[in-house]
Amino acid sequence: MIKMKHIFKVVVPALLTLTLFGLTGCGSGPTPSGSNGGAGNKPTLTKLTVGYPSGTMSKSLFLQTGIDTGIFTKYGLEVQPKAYTVGGQVVEDLAGNNLDFGMAGPSASLDGAAKGADLKIIASAMQNDCPLVARQEITSVKELNGKKVGTPGVSSIQETMLDYLESQQGIKTIHVYANAANLVQLLQKGEIDAIVAWEPLGAQAVAKVGAHYLLNTIIPGAEAEDFTVTGKLFRENPNTVVQFLKAAEAIKQYLNTHLTEREQVAAGSTGLPESVIAQAVQSSHNFITPMQLNVNSIKLSAMQDIASGKLTGVKQSGLDAFLAKNIDTTLLQKALQ
Amino acid sequence: MARVAQLQGRQERNFTGLNTKPKGILTFVSAVIVFLAKILGVILLWQGFTLIVHSIFIPTPIQVWTTFWRLTLKGDVQGYTLPFEAWTSLMRVLRGFALAIIVGIPVGILFGLSNRTYQWTKFLVEPIRFIPPLAWVPLVIIFLHGESRYTFIIWIGAVFPIIYTTMSGVKVLDNNLWEVGRVLGASKWQLVTKIAIPAALPHMFSGARLGLGIGWACIVAAEMVGGGNGGLGSLILNYGQLLQIDAVVASMIVIGMLGYALNEIFVIAEKKLFPWQKDVKF
Amino acid sequence: MAEILIHNLSKTYRASNGGLVNALEGIDLEVKDGEFVCLVGKSGCGKTTLLRIIAGLEQPSAGEVLIDKKLVGSPDPLVGVVFQEDRLFPWRTVRRNVELGLELRKIARNSRKKATETYLRLVGLEGFADALPHELSGGMKQRAAIARVLANEPGVILMDEPFGALDAQTRNQMQEELLEIWSKHFRTVLFVTHSVDEAVMLADRILVITPHPGHIQCEYRLTMPRPRERLSPELIEFRQNILADLNTDVHST
Question: pTM of the prediction?
Answer without folding.
Answer: 0.77
